[in-house]
Amino acid sequence: MGPLIFTRHDKAWVTELVPQNATQITEYRVPVMACPQCHHAVRGDHPAVSLDQVGATAH
Ligand SMILES: [Zn+2]
User: Measured in angstroms, how far is the CA atom of residue 36 from the centroid of ligand 1?
Assistant: First the structure.
């Protein structure tokens, strides 16, 4: 599989519990790439966004 093709940036949100029952939501911009073989969308990794949160992986 060759290098992914950059498509666009997308937003991802990470919700974290913080003290005093408050909820902190952090927004990230993650790159959305396209597979060079079948052109399906593959969302890039972000160090703060877990893979199961992102829900898309390469082959
Ligand atoms: Zn593919």
Answer: 7
What is residue 7's three-state secondary structure? strand
Residue 16's domain spans which residues?
5-54
pLDDT along the chain (59 residues), means of 10: 85 88 90 87 68 52
pLDDT at 25: 92
In a domain, 59, yes or no: no
Q: Is residue 47 part of a domain?
A: yes
Q: Tell me how many domains the chain contains.
A: 1
Q: How far is the CA of 22 from the centre of ligand 1 (A)?
A: 40
Dist. CA 19–CA 39, nearest whole Å: 43
